[in-house]
Amino acid sequence: MSLIPSFFGGRRSNIFDPFSLDVWDPFEGFPIANVPSSARETSAFANARIDWKETPQAHIFKVDVPGIKKEEVKVEVEEGRVLQISGERSKEQEEKNDQWHRMERSSGKFLRRFRLPENVKMGEIKAAMENGVLTVTVPKEEEKKPDVKAIDISG
Fold first, then answer.
1. pLDDT, position 37
2. Residues with Cβ < 8 Å from 117, sequence gap 6 or more?
3. Given this model, what pLDDT does residue 4 score?
4. Fewest Cβ atoms nearer than 10 Å: which of 20, 70, 76, 129?
């Protein structure tokens, strides 16, 4: 497997990850002028940043969701061991007398899906949110070690 450095953000990502159901967009991060504003609003927050690490005990997903309440985020497991994390950050209401000088915070929906490996305990998945970071812990089943039985040698 080859790790490719990201040009935007200094992170390394594995674009050949067999468990990821994400579609790689080579134009992600580039400003596109001809996209209608409604599409920009929907997709502005579409790619919530996720780290996925595997420890001997579990798979751990950390999702940056600043400014989103836990009630606005869903963590679901679909048939076929697919972990789905979704949510929405609503656009701030504009008052008639307000004058905006800058509006950089993204709003919109996000949806990320990952196919989990076979060695996970599907019924024991836990999620917690703290300081704008959602942590999803997917415990792994204990690795079965082959039984080795010593055989006495006669003679």
1. 44
2. 19, 59, 81
3. 45
4. 76
State the Cα–Cα distance between residues 148 and 77, nearest whole angstrom. 37
Give the span between the Cα atoms of 4 and 31, in whole angstroms. 22
CB 81 within 8 A of CB 140: no
The answer for 21, left when phi > 0, alpha when psi is -120 to 50, beta otherwise, is alpha
Among 30, 5, 28, 7, CA closest to 15: 5
Judged against a pLDDT cut of 80, whether residue 16 lies above it is answered with no
The helix/strand/coil state of 65 is: coil
At 41 the three-state DSSP class reads: helix
More confident residue, 147 or 37: 147
**CA–CA gap between residue 13 and residue 11 (Å, rounded):** 6
Strand intervals (E) in the chain: 4-5, 12-13, 50-54, 58-64, 73-78, 82-89, 108-115, 126-130, 133-139
Residues contacting residue 17 through CB under 8 Å, at least 6 positions apart: none
